[in-house]
Amino acid sequence: MTTLRLVELTVDNVDDACDLKVAKPQRDYVSSVARSLAEAYVQPDIAWPRLVYAGKKLVGFVMAAFDPDNPTDYYRSYLWRLNIAAKHQKKGYGRFAVEAVLAEARRRDAASVTVSWMPGKHSPQPFYLRLGFKPTGEIDDDGEIVGRIQL
Ligand SMILES: CC(C)(COP(=O)(O)OP(=O)(O)OC[C@H]1O[C@@H](n2cnc3c(N)ncnc32)[C@H](O)[C@@H]1OP(=O)(O)O)[C@@H](O)C(=O)NCCC(=O)NCCS
Question: Which of 28, 51, 118, 119 is most buried per CB count within 10 Å?
């Protein structure tokens, strides 16, 4: 079985990370890796960006926000971005990335992790529901459905 692991961004992998693409119809549902990294750059104390490798292959990007003092409860321990490359989807890599974020949140003594998603035809909603996130009934500032998983 291929070993899955998270890797930090470095000068050696950042170009490949920025080339990572989800399928075209999915691009309305998630920001590019480059945009996410720019957001991480201006919030280094909060952003937790990682690459997902299957063996030697780069297959995805995940970024969490850990911001325990955020006035908005659902941004305190938040699965911010998740991009699995189009050709590597449906192989369990998305689940691995989410579970890695949950593990990091546990390490930081968080009680739950939230995520938000846009509903629609190519939405990640079924994926998050399958993994156990439950809609909280809230809609965030971008009009996205907020989901939470207890740890
Ligand atoms: C959503 C996404 C991250 C899922 O990643 P993935 O690697 O394909 O998902 P996995 O293979 O780990 O799937 C885990 C489970 O969810 C299910 N699942 C994944 N995508 C699904 C979908 N679109 N519809 C229904 N079930 C889905 C899988 O069948 C699997 O179920 P199982 O436990 O019964 O085997 C990926 O499709 C993606 O990057 N999408 C575009 C970007 C995006 O929307 N990101 C989220 C922004 S909030």
Answer: 51
